[in-house]
Amino acid sequence: DIVMTQSPDSLAVSLGERATINCRSSQSVLHNSNNKNYLAWYQQKPGQPPKLLIYWASTRESGVPDRFSGSGSGTDFTLTINSLQAEDVAVYYCQQYYSPPSLTFGGGTKVEIK
Amino acid sequence: EVQLVESGGGLVKPGGSLRLSCAASGFTFSSHSMNWVRQAPGKGLEWVSSISSSSGYINYAASVKGRFTVSRDNAKKSVYLQMNSLRAEDTAVYYCAADLRLEAFFDHWGQGTLVTVSS
Known about the structure:
The structure holds 2 protein chains of 2 kinds. Chain A is mostly beta strands. Chain A contains no helices and 13 strands. Chain A has strands at 4-7, 10-13, 19-25, 30-31, 36-37, 39-44, 51-55, 59-60, 68-73, 76-81, 90-96, 104-105, 109-113. In chain A, the strands form 3 sheets. In chain A, strands 2, 6, 7, 8, 11, 12 and 13 form a 7-stranded mixed beta sheet that branches. Chain A is globular, with a radius of gyration of 13 Å. Chain B is mainly β. Chain B is built from no helices and 11 strands. In chain B, a hairpin with a 6-residue loop joins strand 5 and strand 6 (58-60). The radius of gyration of chain B is 13 Å and the shape is globular. Classes of the chains: A mainly beta, B mainly beta. At the A-B interface, strand 7 and strand 12 of A face strand 5 of B.
């Protein structure tokens, strides 16, 4: 199975500042056939199910604010939240879908307000 | 609007069984694979099982293989998870999740149903 490792486990960011979350996969999730990275990001607020934010490592889901952006390729990925808002307090997860049916998530990164 | 509504969770003793259901609406259910993802209290997300649109492809996480059985009824627009030989470590919120883009990421989730395995 591909192991997904996120860092940091948690971070506190001031309102209006940038939050950066990292995700590393134990093997590349870049498919040579289509040059796509099979990596998604989710946001989970307390008491709610996860919500898809980004797929193909950098494609924002419809309705997701543009302060959320994804980047990276191969084994190293980043979720950036520009100008953090109070409603962005949540746990964020990365997920690889390169090797179905074994779909694996990172351990999560908790974002709080400083 | 896509809706996924899970039911069937509850308290069960170790070794017991439980059947979860997920009722879907708002999309062509019979054209899409469905998944179960769980989350132990205070922990991260774990993919549990997937079933293809026609039930031809079924897969399980190693942690549940041989104990859990996924099935679906396209006429009822529902997917099920039969859980047998339950263990304390199966305690979690179980989410039904759909990948309507057919790419194995989860673009729609239900609210989840809590399964507690305890004596």
